[in-house]
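Lab notebook, design round three. We kept the backbone fixed and only want residue identities now. Task for the bench partner: fill in a sequence for the structure below.
Input structure tokens:
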């Protein structure tokens, strides 16, 4: 499974908004995160539609996270951007197996095990966890400088 670039952008944008806790212009998001402006705007609209951010127009407008960072999981973000997190098509639809052997397939069993681990991991990781990880990295860098 390979995530789309826009999923990476989304994770970074929402983490940045969670950290700032205020309205951030789309220009600042683009400049600070190295995300092209059209992507910032498109991603912003998608997450506004899903109720994660609000977009304020005008001179002092921008994007702001409206959900608690503890309540926004990596899984949520991936599902909005990717629509599926399945690592193999046979996990989405057992009938997709070209051998029609989904019930007896050791490869599918392995994929199911891997899928379960992946989903458990991304469901438990939140934006708040990213912020905490960033704080710890800053402390480590400060201590070693």
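Proposed sequence:
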């Amino acid at each position: 499974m390979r995530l789309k670039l826009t999923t990476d952008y989304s994770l970074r944008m929402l983490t940045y908004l969670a950290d700032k806790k205020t309205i951030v212009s789309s220009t600042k998001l683009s400049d600070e995160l190295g995300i092209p402006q059209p992507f910032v705007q498109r991603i912003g609209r998608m997450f506004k539609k899903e109720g994660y951010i609000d977009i304020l127009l005008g001179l002092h407008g921008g994007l702001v996270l409206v959900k608690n960072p503890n309540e926004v999981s990596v899984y949520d973000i991936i599902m909005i951007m990717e629509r599926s997190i399945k690592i193999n098509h046979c996990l989405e639809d057992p009938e997709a197996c070209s051998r029609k052997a989904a019930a007896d397939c050791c490869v599918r069993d392995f994929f199911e095990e891997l899928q379960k681990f992946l989903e458990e991991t991304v469901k438990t990781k939140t934006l708040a966890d990213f912020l905490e990880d960033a704080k710890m990295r800053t402390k480590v860098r400060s201590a070693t400088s």
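Keep this in mind before ordering anything: The first helix runs from residue 5 to 20.
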